[in-house]
Write a structure and sequence with these properties.
The chain has 86 residues and is mostly helical. The protein has a single domain, classed as Arc Repressor Mutant, subunit A (Orthogonal Bundle), CATH 1.10.10.10. 71% of the residues lie in helices and 0% in strands. It contains 6 helices and no strands. Helix 3 crosses helix 4. The longest helix has 15 residues. 23% of the residues are buried.
């Protein structure tokens, strides 16, 4: 079981939107433009998400976010991540 699956569900609305955009493959600039926030704010939110999920590397955050987004659109999804997608 993915230890972050239930932690992801606990993210607030704004961090969850950012997590989803990371999972969609958006970079910092794209996220800032989409959400209408500064690059520094995106970086701060990203670091806070990493802390909440117990992730130390950006590559792991991107990987988890990508898997979570894929699970949102797949019927054959990872059951650990599907539990958080509703």
């Amino acid at each position: 079981m993915n230890p972050n699956a239930f932690k992801i569900a606990l993210l607030d609305d704004h961090p969850m939107m950012l997590f989803g955009l990371i999972g969609d493959g958006c970079g910092t600039k794209d996220i800032a433009t989409t959400l209408g926030i500064s690059l520094k704010t995106v970086e701060t939110h990203r670091e806070n998400i990493k802390c909440k999920l117990g992730i130390t590397r950006i590559e792991k955050l991107i990987s988890d976010a990508s898997r979570w987004r894929a699970s949102c659109f797949s019927t054959d999804s990872d059951p650990d991540l599907a539990a958080v997608s509703g």
